[in-house]
Design brief:
Layout: E1 2-4, H1 10-18, E2 22-24, E3 35-40, H2 49-58, E4 62-69, H3 80-89, E5 93-98, H4 103-119
Parallel strand pairs: 1-2, 1-3, 3-4, 4-5
The structure holds flavin mononucleotide.
Amino acid sequence: MIIYASRTGNVRYIVQKLGLPAKDIADVDKIDAPYLLFTYTDGLGSVPPIVDQFMTANYNQCKGIIVSGNRNFGHAFFGRAGDLLATKYGIPLIEKLELRGTLSNYETIKNYYYSIWKEV
Ligand SMILES: Cc1cc2nc3c(=O)[nH]c(=O)nc-3n(C[C@H](O)[C@H](O)[C@H](O)COP(=O)(O)O)c2cc1C
């Protein structure tokens, strides 16, 4: 399962392309099964509040983080939401991609997804 946050549609677009089981973070309060988190990056490289709140309640089942950002915001801030969450909770950052990313990004995500769900 991928739990995703998307404000302007890029992350939602990618999730649809991946074709993996997914739920909008706005529709989930508590999840008791392993999942990957896919978030966008907010201003000054911050974690979107809805994601922050969700992770406080659900970080323990999160097996990996995927982040979308935009390099125009500068190297230090690019996709930083993913770095912040990975560091805070000690969860692997699987992929950092720009806007809607590339097919190569999608392959990396899918490979990780399948490797995790073979184990659990
Ligand atoms: C107000 C605003 C602030 C943003 N700040 C950053 C930022 O600091 N770093 C970054 O990498 N991307 C930043 N972005 C870019 C988004 O993270 C990026 O466009 C992402 O693909 C959006 O995903 P979504 O369309 O699913 O919401 C910002 C976008 C907006 C609209």
